[in-house]
């Protein structure tokens, strides 16, 4: 119970920081749109557009955090932990679309570079850089283990580089007189946004497909399980993630003709191993006697569904 309370306190603190970051970012959007139009700067307007999506991303992250605090129930036996993954999916998809829009607009400006007011551009970029860096640091804590918060953090970090790029573009235009630097910097910013978005998008899809976590080698995991005293075999193994920090496993464990008490001792050893070495804190283990010979390490659920006419059958060990 105490650990759960600490978790909720941490989530509430993070929600508060997300709200502060969203408010500051929204105020910056208003300033950047006005300044970007006045200076005729694509880099500033690009950053303003990115900041608008940041406000949306921060809002989605906040909603997902609130949902994650809801307890599990009969309809949602794993709770709402996947809400954060869905928010990360929406945020990363939005980043991809923004990057594509930047590429198109930059290509148009390369052909006909407009005049840019470098004074306004540099001043607004400097202010935006400070604000974006501050908001990114506000939510940095907690982004390492939460893909939802990380997607929002990447949004804000992208803005830090966007404004830094706009500042560099203003200096380059002032030195060379070529307005095309504005579009060139916007193109580089778009590539950076796309790179970061792709990493988050790939990881969210990986989790939604219930794939094995990338840092877990199933063969090594099985070898470790077989080192546990009393374990004679492993089959029907499944390892997947509910969220980035919440991993789960199910497996059939072959043991000898032993009592339930002895079986519980083996299960406790397995639970401790999974938690300490692999970060798996939720494991469902079916203990079976040795005459339940396994056919495959990973069960073919599609084949089983066809064999049973789409209806599962309970099988004893």
Describe the structure.
- By secondary structure, the chain is mainly α.
- Helix content is 67%, strand content 10%.
- The radius of gyration is 26 Å and the shape is elongated.
Sum this structure up briefly.
The protein has helices spanning 2-39, 42-68, 82-111, 118-140, 147-176, 180-208, 218-226, 260-278, 301-307; strands spanning 233-243, 246-255, 280-289.
Secondary structure elements and pairings:
Elements: H1 2-39, H2 42-68, H3 82-111, H4 118-140, H5 147-176, H6 180-208, H7 218-226, E1 233-243, E2 246-255, H8 260-278, E3 280-289, H9 301-307
Parallel strand pairs: 2-3
Antiparallel strand pairs: 1-2
Helix pairs in contact: 1-2, 1-4, 2-3, 2-5, 3-5, 3-6, 4-5, 5-6
Determine the structural class based on helices, strands and strand pairing: mainly alpha
> How is the CATH topology of the largest domain named?
Alpha-lytic protease prodomain-like
Gyration radius over CA: 26 Å
* H-E order: HHHHHHHEEHEH
Report the mean per-residue pLDDT as an integer: 78
Second-tier CATH architecture of the largest domain: Up-down Bundle
Count structural domains.
2
- Total count of helical runs of at least 4 residues: 9
CATH homolog superfamily of the largest domain? Cation efflux protein transmembrane domain
Which term fits the overall shape?
elongated
Into which percentage range does the β-strand content fall?
A: 5-15%
